[in-house]
Amino acid sequence: MTDDDFDVGGRLRALRAQAGLSQRGLAEKAGVPHAQISIIEQNKSSPSVSTLRKILGGLGVSMSDFFDNDRLEYQAGPFFEANGLIDLTSRIRSPGYLSLRQVGDAKAYDLQILHEVYGPGADTGEVLLQHASSEGGIVIEGEIEVTVGHLVRVLRAGESYLFDSRTPHRFRNVSSATAVVISACTPPYL
């Protein structure tokens, strides 16, 4: 099976069964509608980053583990080649192109560092992200709309953000150019 053939629904179904949860039980733990679990497991719909993260939270599984269950070792570091970053999102269909690539083993260092690329229209999802972490980032290229609680701002290259991730938040590219962000989060959440 190639990366393009990754079965998101099948993987979710297997993890849910392994956890001994019904679709309804997982939906309750994750705080999502029961039908959403069923639709994703049947591959009738591809979840947004925020929705998938919420569902995986109900299973206690990170996105890194969800997509790379066969990888037993991370590149040791302390230095990493550009092609050595761990792809967390290429298997998620979303509006616009969205890529989140992680540096090394975030769990081992209790720090997640991401190289984020948002194509025009890319969005982490209408369901706002929320997790027990702190996060910050710097826009390297383009511009990105960042929502933190009731505050919304378009940040341009050179501008940055830092906030308590328990506050609901969202990232989306509302421009016609690609946006690149370097971010960090502790403890890791993806």
Automatic annotation (TrEMBL):
Fetch the SMART domains from UniProt: HTH_XRE
Protein keywords: DNA-binding
Q: Would the keyword Cytoplasm be found if you checked this record's keyword annotation? A: no
Superkingdom of origin organism? Bacteria
Q: Which residues form the HTH cro/C1-type domain?
A: 12-66
Which residue ranges run through the membrane? none
| InterPro entries listed in its UniProt record | Cro/C1-type_HTH, Cupin_2, Lambda_DNA-bd_dom_sf, RmlC-like_jellyroll, RmlC_Cupin_sf, TransReg_Diox_bact_type
Q: What is this protein called in UniProt?
A: XRE family transcriptional regulator
